Amino acid sequence: MKMSVKTPLKVRAGTSLSVLALILCAGFAHAQTCLTAGDMDEPTRAALVNTAKRYFEMAARGDSAALRQNSIASVASDFSGIETVVKNNQSNFSGAQAAPRSPFLLKAEGTAPFERAEFLCGVFGKSGQTADSAVFVLPNLSPGNYAVVTLDVSADKHPCTVSFVLQQESKDWKVGGLYVKEIQIVGHDANWFAERARAFKTKGQNRNAWLYYIEARDLAVPVPFMYSQMTDKLADESETVRPADLPVSGNTIELAAGGKTHRLTALFPLGVGQEIDLVVKYQSADVSNTAQTFQDNMAVTKALVAKYPEFRDAFDGVVARAVEPSTGRDYGSLLPMKEIK
User: Fold this and answer.
1) Which of 203, 220, 243 is the last residue of a domain?
2) What burial class does residue 187 get, using C-beta atoms within 10 Å of its C-beta: 0-12 exposed, 13-18 middle, 19+ buried?
3) Residue 248 within any structural domain of the chain
4) Are residues 146 and 227 in the same domain?
5) Domain range holding 317?
6) Are 221 and 264 part of one and the same domain?
7) Cβ distance 163 to 149 under 8 Å?
8) Do 278 and 308 belong together in one domain?
9) What is the CA radius of gyration of the chain?
10) How would you class 265 by CB atoms within 10 Å of its CB: exposed for 0-12, middle for 13-18, buried for 19 or more?
């Protein structure tokens, strides 16, 4: 199993899982089970927590070599992502206290990979998830025993969560993935963004509401493949304001700007310093001419805000990023909202 490393990862769409309990009737649950800390024997729980703490200590020392030696083969063979995350966060981790949350043990039984493995953890009610439940959805998962262990890191610079996805090999638990996420954006948590989203919805600013719901959902869980009672609620609420005229859920839209027609591919919030900016990505045949690309970025930014003036109430600036579809190369430009005429 190889998990992507994200720091942080932005989930750009929510999927309500409030009726996942019904999966128990679909014939899949017998092969995919989840044990919470209360379901595990003490030696197993302690082994998972202590292993995650030991791997965090390696990261805090900047010891990527030791982490690589303790990773599953597919991760160790392509370790650059984790190595970069460790390097970028070492100063933040150094000297920080890491408090473990209750771990989850995921058991995938069978002889062939699961196209979509779904693990229901804890107790579910008649309406779906409860305050103590969780759901993990993992694509292309091979049979085996896995665990998700999250540590709350009380770092002076940037408090965050560090989550290890572990895979059991014999009696050892190896690194199968690493996720580092800030728990706040510009000093605000998931509840703040959710309340702001509801306020925008009340004002009829559904696009702003949608974008703030996205940020709230992202901050609500430590890994992007985890769903909770809160994320289910946010997903249900966000569906009532899903915009049809923005590039969301994989669709694209066209925007006329600067005498050209640009194809927008993504739109999402981003915390930068003490500001919340709006990032818009669009396709560009060639970004090597930076002077021209800068002009295109400015034109896209101004046209976007002119078309959707409500963005002025929600964001401090717009970051337009021209992206070459064939190479992935991009070039971005920031324009503060107060300078957009």
Assistant:
1) 243
2) exposed
3) no
4) yes
5) 253-339
6) no
7) yes
8) yes
9) 21
10) middle
Per-position pLDDT tens, the chain of length 341: 544 443 333 333 333 333 333 333 334 445 899 999 999 999 999 999 999 999 999 999 999 999 999 999 999 999 999 999 999 999 989 889 999 999 999 999 999 999 999 999 999 999 899 999 999 999 999 999 999 999 999 876 778 999 999 999 999 999 999 999 999 999 999 999 999 999 999 999 999 999 999 999 999 999 999 999 999 999 999 999 999 999 988 899 999 999 999 999 999 999 988 899 999 999 999 999 999 999 999 999 999 999 999 999 999 999 999 999 999 999 999 999 999 98
Distance CA 86, CA 200 (A): 38
Domain end among 200, 220, 243: 243
Question: Are 63 and 208 in a shared domain?
Answer: yes
Q: How many domains does the chain have?
A: 2
Joined tokens for residue 296: 């295109």
Residues 315, 237: one domain? no
CA dihedral 32, 37, 38, 44 (to 10 degrees): 90
Structure pTM?
0.86
Same domain, 218 and 304: no
CB contact at 8 A, 136 and 177: no
